[in-house]
Specification:
43% helix, seven-stranded mixed β-sheet, 16 helices
């Protein structure tokens, strides 16, 4: 696998692209009358200075989870202000985004929302028309190749450097790449350890794509594609001294099943084996990344998926309960498109 050496951080470009979604997000807030609800005129009529998230959701009759994420984005771009844990409009929003304001620019906002993108159905989602998220979106070859290219924009290099620094890595011989798609992380890691073979676990169609797309890849014979859906009752078919889990545990982190899943991983590992976690966390490096993180979370919930963040504390506590310890952590860096936490844990 050819891994590019990068000189410019992709995070800067990614943050710029993420901000391009803001007009769509702001216009959705206009459509559901959020700014009108929080206008000074309306608040004064109610004898209030601000509203809580729960009051906003009740007044607008919107879906709580998506509404909360929307408010978070609007607060980060300074269209909402926080007053004792509740929300009101900033001066900018009061003057330009309330429909009855003398200088209202609501009509102008519509001219910036013509793109087809992830927030096209934000208003429907806010009204409770929540789509059902399907893992089948990962089954196309085009998506798989796009994800590999995305990983090569800094994330893969970051993982590789981190794993190479784990003392046990040089002695590992069998790896499990959980939900590993077509195996791009596996190929990167096995070329750094000539004793290592990898089992890539994913859906049947994804594994088929991997066999077809990677057939000419160097070290193809050291990667085994296992057609296993771990979320639908499938289980590990072998024992491993290295388990790599990337962008897979988010739903487990909020549905109460994280410890149980990690216990399954623990049983599938050799004593002293290492689990490597590569997930977006809730720690932003700077203001730009903080906004990107908020937009990604809103986009994720609009798609019907519960979250795209796994906090370090949640992961560590679950790993400890599942029988792991001796943690090695690398905090997010500004060179990655997302604030990604890398964590290694040893089976005790």
């Amino acid at each position: 696998m050819n891994i590019p050496i990068l000189h410019a951080p992709y995070s800067k470009l990614h943050n710029l692209l993420s901000v391009s979604y803001l007009p769509k997000v702001i216009h959705a807030a206009i459509e559901i009358d959020l700014f009108d609800l929080l206008s000074n005129t309306n608040l004064q009529l109610k004898g209030r200075e601000s509203y809580s998230v729960e009051e906003i959701t009740e007044a607008l009759q919107t879906a709580p989870s998506v509404t909360k994420a929307l408010i978070n984005v609007l607060h980060k771009v300074e269209l909402l202000t926080m007053v004792h844990g509740e929300y009101a409009l900033s001066t900018m929003a009061e003057e330009y985004l309330v429909k009855t304001a003398e200088a209202s620019q609501v009509m102008m906002m519509g001219k910036f929302t013509g793109s087809q993108g992830p927030f096209d159905h934000l208003v429907d989602s806010l009204k409770g028309e929540k789509p059902t998220f399907s893992g089948r979106i990962w089954e196309s070859k085009e998506t798989a190749l796009a994800m590999e290219q995305g990983a090569k924009a800094g994330g893969l290099q970051q993982v590789l450097q981190f794993v190479k620094g784990i003392p046990q890595f040089a002695h590992c011989t069998k790896m499990c790449d959980v939900a590993g798609n077509i195996g791009y992380y596996s190929y990167a890691l096995i070329q750094e350890n000539n004793k290592l073979v990898s089992h890539v676990y994913d859906l049947p169609k994804v594994c088929q794509n991997g066999r077809e797309l990677k057939r000419e890849e160097k070290d193809y014979d050291r990667v085994v594609y296992q057609e296993i859906d771990l979320k639908q009752g499938g289980d590990f078919v072998d024992t491993y001294d290295l388990v790599f889990v990337s962008h897979f545990l988010y739903e487990y982190g909020v549905n109460g099943q994280l410890v149980d899943f990690l216990k399954r991983v623990h049983r599938a590992m050799k004593p002293g084996g290492v689990l490597i976690s590569n997930h977006i966390c809730d720690e932003a490096i700077d203001q730009e990344t903080d906004l990107t993180l908020a937009l990604v979370e809103l986009q994720t919930r609009v798609m019907g998926y519960p979250t795209h963040q796994l906090p370090e504390k949640v992961l560590k506590e679950a790993l400890t309960e599942a029988g792991f310890g001796d943690f090695t952590v690398q905090k997010p860096t500004s060179r990655h498109a997302y604030p990604t936490l890398l964590l290694a844990a040893v089976k005790q």
